[in-house]
Amino acid sequence: MRRAVQWLLLSGLLLCLPFAQARDQQVDTLAVVSVAQLPAEARDTLQLIERGGPFPYARDGIEFKNRERILPAQPRGYYHEYTVPTPGMKHRGARRIVCGNLPECYYSADHYRSFRRIQE
Predict the structure, then answer these.
(1) What is the DSSP string of 66-95?
(2) Structural domain range at position 58
């Protein structure tokens, strides 16, 4: 019985390995976007981040937990998120910038489904 449980645990771990490897490869291959290629609102948000605010939304600067594990793994509290306004929207919209230690920042146009590393 004990061997059967050990075998089940080991086989379960082996089944998870390809998913972990795929996630790690995804982090290594994040697309890059230059500051000049960002929407004007994202460039404005980057300037606010560099100045330390003030930010237009109460949730700007809160911890981004990286639950999707798309960004490189870092300790808790490393990443912070900021809203990129979307013209014509009456709410925050889906666009965000997530930053670690400056200048490490990422742009998401689709509310964290994908990210592109912002390159100066």
Answers:
(1) -TT--SPP--TT-EEEEE---TT-SS--S-
(2) 30-119
